[in-house]
């Protein structure tokens, strides 16, 4: 059996141990098999599974650890819509409850001041980046959440290394920082338009991995990376709405349709990005339906904050 087939079989075995209806985002996560097993082991350690299950996990982990193989990401094989068996109303109610708890957890994060959160949101035009930022993070205290949208670099920014403009917006302790587009643009749009050759892109990927590692190791920054995965058909519909809906006309840019023609090249560059900048891992978020997209991102942020075991500081002495 080919190594890729073994990996896929083991992934299916691992996923069978959890209820995907409760954690649907797991199956969209681009991660090494070993990372998936470690995530599931955390759930086992919390008492979610039995002792026999725990033993099976360790057997799987030992075997999988020898493979050192990551499935190659192929976006065309990942659905852009929610699983058909999910109940929209039920999931929206869950999201509302999560958002209430996120507000409380964000307050705790800010008060404790020991951790920082970086949320990277990437996606094609019309994938819903602005909407998910507004709907998932909009109810939090604005003192503790900041959003940075990255456009084409200015002349001053171009006179520095490509991460210079990024690092100055990295989150301080106690803060949640959202990047609406990010440092990844410098290995995506620049490659699609041939402004950056493959050799330079490889060097930039190494620099990005080092940069994210620095934030994690030296500032207790926890990084969530989301790719909003829409279909070409849904993108075309949303871009067309910007020409008809007065509330969306301000977003219209005639260049968006020209960029959409480069869809296949963008997918190729995104896949290369996911395969080479995967620590921390990316989550591919099916984004044709906003309610499902918002649930996945809200629930991942909730799980991250909940597991930090934060506490309010006592009285200052």
Low-pLDDT residue intervals, each spanning 5 or more residues: 15-27, 41-70
Shape: globular
Q: Beta fraction of the residues?
A: 5-15%
Mean pLDDT, rounded to whole units?
84
| CATH homologous superfamily descriptor of the largest domain | P-loop containing nucleotide triphosphate hydrolases
Number of helical stretches of at least 4 residues: 13
Following the backbone from N to C, one meets helices and strands in this order, namely: HEHHHEHEHHEHHEHHHEH
- Tally of DSSP β-strands: 6
Oligomer: single chain
Rg computed from alpha carbons, rounded to a whole number of angstroms: 20 Å
How many individual domains? 2
Structural class based on helices, strands and sheet pairing: alpha/beta
Helix amount: 40-55%
CATH architecture annotation name of the largest domain:
3-Layer(aba) Sandwich
Please write the CATH class name of the largest domain.
Answer: Alpha Beta
N-end to C-end Cα span: 64 Å
CATH third-level topology of the largest domain = Rossmann fold
Can you describe what's shown?
Strands 1-6-5-2-4-3 form a six-stranded mixed β-sheet. It has two domains: 3-64, no CATH class; 79-306, P-loop containing nucleotide triphosphate hydrolases (Rossmann fold, 3-Layer(aba) Sandwich), CATH 3.40.50.300. The protein has helices at 3-15, 33-45, 51-64, 88-112, 129-137, 155-158, 164-167, 189-192, 198-219, 232-241, 255-260, 263-276, 290-306; strands at residues 29-30, 116-123, 145-149, 176-180, 221-229, 282-286. The radius of gyration is 20 Å and the shape is globular. By secondary structure, the protein is α/β, with parallel strands linked by helices. Helix 5 crosses helix 13 (290-306).
